[in-house]
Amino acid sequence: MFGFGNKGEFPQSQLIPSIIKLGDYLKKGFEHRMNSRVENIEIDKETLEQYIALVTHDWNPIVNGKPIFDDETKKHAVKFIAGIAYNLTKEEEKC
Prior knowledge:
Blueprint: H1 12-38, H2 45-55, E1 62-63, E2 66-67, H3 71-89
Antiparallel strand pairs: 1-2
């Protein structure tokens, strides 16, 4: 049931390390933005994306013997991670 050993089945167990790594990069983005604030530097979303792109440069997860990122997919993953980190660190908007 959970082996996912047959071809054509969703490789859930093989994706777990990539999901954990995604969380690690999200934490790095979060910490980078918060640490910058301590130094009175405000990082915008685009700058945070550049930082995430740098720290993920060698991230190339493989599932079923195939890389799961192409250039466009990796750009979207970086944008996704940076967007979440940015939103988690966004200060409450004043009305």
